[in-house]
């Protein structure tokens, strides 16, 4: 069983602490939080061991779970890696692409594994459909959220859209060719709503919209490819796969058949994959334990997260041009 410690005991940090404490793949050793009042409250309420310094916690564990503000990700990761500890980092991996690249280099130098908390990869609706997503050529995503002051210190691209950027990069196996984007600051000092168009070298186009000033929450993605359309609702955790195949010579009474201008007939049929209930955060943490124990590649690698961050900053750069 891997000994793990958590850096940061805020809203998400407490979730990580609870899940790691119930996991049979980890032994939760304790946590560190620089806010002494909050640390004392968490220790008293939940009984987790509180460490006085980051260094002391790192020395006591095999894995360091970094759930601190993004600005401190790099320093925390650097110290943990230098001590030979595996690292799990909440998204985004770091504040800058340069920091992310240095984290990758340090992890390779010290022979440790790293995974980043792009949790939508473990969303059960996406897990149920990703095997059907094969060479998509058009992708449309909408990630809309009601206003919440928490997270408004960064552009909505880093706050929300980066989830969809990571998912898209995981299914489009082609380099990015061109990016166009626009963003508007409505309430915050940084853009609250943004739209981006990502063109890939293989011809795929992805159109992403993210907003944190919407009247309702929405997290939907649609993937279009030859003879198939896949819809994934990350919020309600439902999905639908619509496929087309050559129509039979004698269609049944209830077969849905379309005929194009050239006279080609296609039959439409629907698949509703079984969506298995899960806890996505627990799954991502436990698959990281598996990667360490089996010496395999983590599901969301440091490189994956760095590419998502790189694309996010390319989108943000469009706002200033």
Walk me through this protein's architecture.
By secondary structure, the chain is of the alpha/beta class. It folds into two domains: 2-112, NAD(P)-binding Rossmann-like Domain (Rossmann fold), CATH 3.40.50; 121-279 and 310-320, Dihydrodipicolinate Reductase, domain 2 (2-Layer Sandwich), CATH 3.30.360.10. The chain is 34% helix and 28% strand. The chain has helices spanning 11-22, 36-46, 54-59, 73-82, 97-110, 124-129, 156-171, 280-294, 302-320, and strands at 2-7, 26-32, 63-66, 86-90, 114-117, 138-144, 176-184, 193-200, 205-211, 218-225, 228-233, 238-246, 256-259, 265-271. The strands form two sheets. It has a nine-stranded mixed sheet with strand order 7-8-9-6-10-11-12-14-13. Strands 2-1-3-4-5 form a five-stranded parallel sheet, sandwiched between helices. Helix 5 packs antiparallel against helix 9 and helix 7 crosses helix 9 (302-320). The longest helix is centred in the C-terminal third of the chain and has 19 residues, at 302-320. The radius of gyration is 22 Å and the shape is globular. The N and C termini lie far apart (51 Å). The model has no long low-confidence stretch (mean pLDDT 93).
């Amino acid at each position: 069983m891997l000994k793990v410690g958590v850096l940061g005991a805020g809203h998400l940090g407490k979730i990580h602490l609870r899940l790691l404490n119930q996991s049979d793949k980890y032994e939760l050793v304790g946590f560190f939080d620089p806010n002494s009042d909050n640390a004392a409250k968490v220790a008293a309420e939940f009984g987790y061991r509180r460490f006085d310094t980051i260094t002391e916690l790192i020395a006591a564990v095999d894995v360091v779970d970094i759930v601190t503000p993004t600005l401190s990700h790099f320093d925390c990761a650097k110290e943990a890696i230098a001590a030979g500890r595996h690292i799990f980092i909440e998204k985004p991996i770091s504040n800058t692409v340069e920091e992310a690249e240095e984290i990758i280099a340090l992890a390779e130098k010290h022979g440790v594994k790293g995974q980043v908390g792009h949790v939508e990869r473990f969303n059960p609706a996406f897990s149920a459909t990703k095997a059907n997503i094969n060479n998509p050529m058009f992708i449309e995503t909408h990630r809309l959220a009601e206003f919440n002051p928490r997270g408004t210190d960064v552009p909505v691209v880093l706050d929300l859209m980066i989830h969809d950027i990571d998912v898209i990069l995981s299914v489009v196996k082609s380099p990015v060719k061109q990016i166009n984007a626009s963003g508007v600051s409505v309430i915050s000092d940084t853009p609250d709503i943004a739209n981006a168009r990502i063109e890939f070298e293989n011809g795929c186009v992805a159109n992403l919209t993210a907003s944190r000033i919407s009247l309702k929450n929405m997290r939907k993605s649609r993937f279009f490819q030859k003879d198939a359309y896949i819809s994934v609702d990350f919020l309600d955790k439902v999905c639908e796969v619509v496929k087309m195949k050559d129509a039979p010579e004698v269609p049944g009474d209830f077969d849905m058949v379309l005929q194009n201008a050239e006279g080609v007939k296609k039959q439409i049929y629907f698949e509703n994959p079984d969506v298995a209930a899960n806890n996505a955060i627990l799954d991502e943490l436990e698959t990281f334990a598996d990667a360490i124990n089996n010496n395999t590649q983590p599901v969301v690698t440091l490189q994956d997260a760095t590419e998502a961050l790189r694309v996010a900053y390319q989108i943000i750069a469009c706002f200033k041009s």
